[in-house]
Write a structure and sequence with these properties.
Bound molecules: adenosine-5'-triphosphate, nickel (II) ion
CATH architecture of one domain: 3-Layer(aba) Sandwich
CATH class of one domain: Alpha Beta
CATH superfamily of one domain: P-loop containing nucleotide triphosphate hydrolases
Number of strands: 13
Strand content: 15-25%
Shape: globular
Largest sheet: 8 strands, mixed
Order of helices and strands: EEEHEHEEHEHHHHHEHEHEEHHHEE
Number of helices: 13
Amino acid sequence: MGDELLRVEGLSTRFFTEEGQVNAVEDVSFTVGDGEVFGVVGESGSGKSVTALSVMDLVESPGRVTAGEVWYRNADLAADVRDDHPEAVDGDYVDVRGVPERIRRSLRGPSFSMIFQDPMSSLNPSLTVGEQIAEAVEVQRRASANPRSTRSRTQGFGLGQFIAGSLLPSRRYVSEESRSRAVELLEQVGIPDPAERADEYPHQFSGGMLQRAMVAQALAGEPDLLVADEPTTALDVTIQAQILNLLDDLQEETGMSIVLITHNLGVIARMCDRVGVMYAGEIVERGSLEAIFDESVHPYTKGLLGSIPDLADPAPRLSPIEGNVPSLLDAEMGDRCYFADRCPKAMEECLDHPPEFDCGDGHGARCVLADHSYDESRALPEGYFDGDSEDGGAAAGPASGDDADSPDPEEVTGDD
Ligand SMILES: Nc1ncnc2c1ncn2[C@@H]1O[C@H](COP(=O)(O)OP(=O)(O)OP(=O)(O)O)[C@@H](O)[C@H]1O
Ligand code: NI
């Protein structure tokens, strides 16, 4: 297990909605090494953000993490919780889902920190940027000054606010030291005149500067792991590149690990060491950058690679493969491979839901092609799944004739 900071195993998250149970994240496993940048890529709605929120334990009702373990390597924490929660400790690793919520909450900031998809969900418009960052620093300062038993209460207070983006009515005392540390952090993330900018409100910041401020806020606790959910999506191309450079530099300076969520494979190629490709709530392929870009097995990954939006392309969303992302409603999901009806290589084997096959060297794919080669004689006829979204395909027969209008799944639009 060596240098892994985080080991996520079998994570599943569901939303219990009026329409039914939504399987937003299904049996997701991945690891993040020390100082590693792990990328999560996939189309809109594939479960990237919910995966991030699940790791951070920030899933809100009607959602709930229903299964899985999140093993975090922290020897001090392991020593602290070993007696009370032996089943949640494995050597220096702690399953953060197996410890009480107050302990889990205490990890947000100093252990795990997150940059959210929407800037305004983490900065409070009615407080100066400096105050908010100083508050995050103060929380961390108290945490490290206090023993863990009191730490969790302190942490809970500050971080509840940090996450909700609104201060509790009674303002906390924030030390002069924390204020000057906030200015330092603003400087570290490349904000000019940081002392003056600290006294400004979020609306006085441009998009790029606001993103930098959010990075500063997320780093205030000196986290081991930063989860960055589409940190550059809303920004124009030049600013995007600057923020990615900033994250790169900060990663090197601090040695932290990063989970970087994006729909842009160009960003993945630029930033990541290893990658998980998500589709319909699952990681369908994972491996090193080289494995994913040069030796991918899953036709979905290959489809994504067929149209890499580069950084100079402001296209906001990936939609390179014909067909739609399947419904994640449990009742509509069926038992087949969820990609089968868009897959140019769908075979009879794909009517059973594939496990993850090991391709060696940490490369895995949830696709039968990882196990045996494509056999044309077992190919499902084109249109096999047409008009069949309800019961997983078993009952659907071949579509009549060859329909010239039916979408060719191999065709990649590439112009999005
Ligand atoms: N509060 C909710 N209630 C019901 N379903 C939800 C809720 N939040 C997310 N989902 C479902 O979970 C699935 C995954 O959503 P998620 O936000 O993780 O996608 P994503 O990959 O981050 O997409 P994007 O690239 O658009 O941000 C979606 O199908 C979505 O409908
Ligand atoms: Ni998202």
